Amino acid sequence: MFTGIVEELGEVTAVENLGDSSRFRLRGPVVTENARHGDSIAVNGVCLTVVECGHGEFTADVMAETLDRSSLGALKTGSRVNLERPMALGGRLGGHIVQGHVDGTGTILERTPSEHWEVVKVALPAALTRYVVEKGSITVDGVSLTVVEAAPGHFTISLIPTTLALTTLGLKGPGDPVNLEVDVIAKYVESLLGPAHQAARTEESAR
Description:
single chain, 207 residues, Elongation Factor Tu (Ef-tu), domain 3, 2 domains, 6-stranded antiparallel barrel, 17% helix
């Protein structure tokens, strides 16, 4: 479980194509300080398992499902990535509950700078629209953010100087893909209320 508070802006140092999967080597001295084989590290919001670790770098295998559902397939040597270790039990939930399970990818549509922050518009897949609400939480490339505006087909977020300086969101421009994870609580609510809502509609139709 993560919180969407990026600990480090890392870098891809190698990509090995394994046919139906890829193996990434990534540099991240902070997140690898106490990392061991089998630990989890979120890379641009995707929870990956550490295969090897040492000298400030770690390797992780990425299966085809993850490559298809996220933007990790577009990474190459030299790409910068957001890195976060799982939250320790009893730690502070600085952002919101983030699973590291990407729901889909969006595309940056435009950036509007101001004196102290930037407003970024992101295209939203139609299947995720119902989970995104104004002032709700969303994870973009592993960064926990508050939705400023939610509209059909897109949403906007405001980025403070710290986010611009310390995450990939300060480096990406229009046309660049980003990983999206919606608030898992919204999905659970939908799942729990779905059958009851359908039953009520069926009963109403039968009257």
